DNA sequence: AAAAAAAATTGAACGCATTCATTTTTTCAG
DNA sequence: CTGAAAAAATGAATGCGTTCAATTTTTTTT
């Protein structure tokens, strides 16, 4: 049976996360003061730091949730991709983009990206890049699936192209988070143009009729 | 004739920038305290803030110098690119990479990237992205030059591919700055693999002999 | 059930970027 | 040269994330 101590710990953890998440959503990550989070969670500032390493740690918890859900959804696309290379890539990337503002605001994303770059040796950063790598791998897996099926040229370097495409979708997403006025639809359109440019190059070479 | 006031202002400006640059190089951007910079520049903390908006402003001055020099060098490559698409892209990108640690450390780059993402409405950010855009445009210009010359397919979307390639070289560079142990040679090799994957797709279609 | 040990809570104190009211220096009109 | 006005310099004060020595609560031991 869970002891008092254990139960209280779980309750406080939840309480802090809930309070932080709410405040981040209301006033933003930067403007959310630790005192305010602690107060809302009915805990002292010192106790807050007993539960979370620092402010960034809170953000990481939320980012992890977001990316894990999106990875899960992405699996379905990779398992059964649309018919054309263009449609398949757009389907996967849309999965990512469309989910992106469910738990996080643009400001929270910006902060997460900034923190991950600035302090690479931090647990925050390590975890963030683990998630990034998983997404990039999913893009590569999609490309490989398309190659096996003959939708795109087999001689293309799927790993390299997966990395390139992920870097690009990431850069476009960063641009999206940096423009508060930009709607998701604009992001999708930009991505569609880039995907079209790439898939235009990826069509398999025509094979002479009757060739083995 | 320049008055006393004007002359002193210029001298102090130079003094602060020199002191900051030296300290950044010695102890890093984050560890460089404003008091220390001010003291080294023989100026009070208050005066420091009279000359620079904030600490990031110092970094921006150094980043600007770096990127401007590299853009200048890049022009030469775009004006007279190597014979193959692969060699041309590698030449341009190497120009960027090889210059990158002249004025800045990896930590300074990381900080600059992080700041530019985190506070997009800041003068820092605006200037940083102006520089980024200029670099991306240079990649696109190179591609267009190669198209005109027939080195790569004319039906490719140069603007989109330029953006994709720039996003990728940027992502690889970010990875480089985040690994203190990684040498420039590793970065170049990664980029070479990606460039090879892309240029493999960019070869112009064979034209039947004798076609107009 | 009392005492000792272990674990967790607490808020005052610290470091550091930035701000601001006050003082000093420079300019310039008379 | 003098005194008023303008500009710049100054360092103490502020805000905020994080740390830590002291206190309180919970668990274990006897």
UniProtKB/TrEMBL annotation, chains A, B:
The keyword Coiled coil does not apply. It holds the Pfam family TetR_N. The keyword DNA-binding applies. Gene3D superfamilies: Tetracycline Repressor, domain 2 (1.10.357.10). Residues 33-52 bind DNA. GO terms for molecular function: DNA-binding transcription factor activity; transcription cis-regulatory region binding. InterPro entries: Homeodomain-like_sf (IPR009057), HTH-type_TetR-like_transc_reg (IPR050109), HTH_TetR (IPR001647), Tet_transcr_reg_TetR-rel_C_sf (IPR036271). Residues 10-70 form the HTH tetR-type domain. SUPFAM superfamilies: Homeodomain-like (SSF46689), Tetracyclin repressor-like, C-terminal domain (SSF48498). Keywords: DNA-binding. This is TetR/AcrR family transcriptional regulator. The lineage of its organism: Bacteria, Pseudomonadati, Pseudomonadota, Alphaproteobacteria, Rhodobacterales.
């Amino acid at each position: 049976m869970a002891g008092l101590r254990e139960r209280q710990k779980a309750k406080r953890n939840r309480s802090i996360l809930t309070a932080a998440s709410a405040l981040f959503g209301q006033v933003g990550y930067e403007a959310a003061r630790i005192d305010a989070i602690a107060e809302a969670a009915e805990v002292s500032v010192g106790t807050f730091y007993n539960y979370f390493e620092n402010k960034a740690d809170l953000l990481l918890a939320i980012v992890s949730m977001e990316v894990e859900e999106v990875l899960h959804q992405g699996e379905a696309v990779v398992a059964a991709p649309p018919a054309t290379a263009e449609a398949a890539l757009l389907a996967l990337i849309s999965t990512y983009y469309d989910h992106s503002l469910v738990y996080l605001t643009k400001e929270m994303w910006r902060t997460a990206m900034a923190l991950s770059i600035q302090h690479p040796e931090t647990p925050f950063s390590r975890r963030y890049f683990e998630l990034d790598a998983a997404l990039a791998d999913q893009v590569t897996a999609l490309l490989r699936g398309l190659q096996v099926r003959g939708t795109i040229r087999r001689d293309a370097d799927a790993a390299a192209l997966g990395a390139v495409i992920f870097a690009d979708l990431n850069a476009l997403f960063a641009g999206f988070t940096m423009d508060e006025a930009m709607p998701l639809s604009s992001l999708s359109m930009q991505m569609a143009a880039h995907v079209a440019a790439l898939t235009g190059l990826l069509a398999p070479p025509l094979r002479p009729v009757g060739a083995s």
